[in-house]
């Protein structure tokens, strides 16, 4: 079972920050700036293990690891089961007053709704076409 199954995240503009409420998940979380991805700590640990296997002698691997970790942020739940998204990550993702939250298997994606709409509108194929290709049984 996915660790995000049964979890609930609500983000809303509050004061100068954006906060999220997480219900049903224990432990810490890690936000990384790939839109924004929110990982439960156990999933982040798995991802971190795979990152450790990258080669420090490969310039692309070094760049990826440095950039990813530079923008990563440990997040803890506050007393009201909320997380606070750091200002630099809000700016990175273009988050202002509204967010779109998607549960995607092992992570939660946090989008600016306009950015997500542009992303969906600019896809070269329809969902049905992609689904047919992706779910096609190997023969």
Describe the structure.
By secondary structure, this protein is of the alpha+beta class. It has one domain: Transcriptional regulator MraZ domain (Chemotaxis protein chec). Helix content is 35%, strand content 27%. It is built from five helices and eight strands. It has helices at 41-52, 59-71, 87-93, 113-121, 127-134; strands at 8-14, 17-23, 29-32, 37-40, 73-75, 82-84, 100-104, 107-111. Strands 5-3-4-8-7 form a five-stranded antiparallel sheet. Strands 1-2-6 form a three-stranded antiparallel sheet, with no helix packed on it. Residues 1-25 have low confidence and may be disordered.
Précis, in short:
The protein has 139 residues and is an alpha+beta fold. Helices cover 35% and strands 27% of the residues.
Query: Helices and strands: which structural class?
Result: alpha+beta
Q: Give the overall shape, derived from the CA principal axes.
A: globular
CATH topology: Chemotaxis protein chec
Content of β-strand: 25-35%
N-end to C-end Cα span: 28 Å
User: Mind telling me the CATH class?
Assistant: Alpha Beta
Largest sheet: 5 strands, antiparallel
> What share of residues is helical?
25-40%
- Per CATH, the superfamily is Transcriptional regulator MraZ domain
Question: Mean pLDDT, as a whole number?
Answer: 74
In the residues, how many domains can be counted? 1
Uncertain runs: 1-25
User: Which H/E pattern describes the elements?
Assistant: EEEEHHEEHEEHH
Architecture, according to CATH?
Answer: 3-Layer(aba) Sandwich
Give me the count of strands: 8
Main sheet: which strands, in order across?
5-3-4-8-7
Helix count equals 5
Radius of gyration: 17 Å
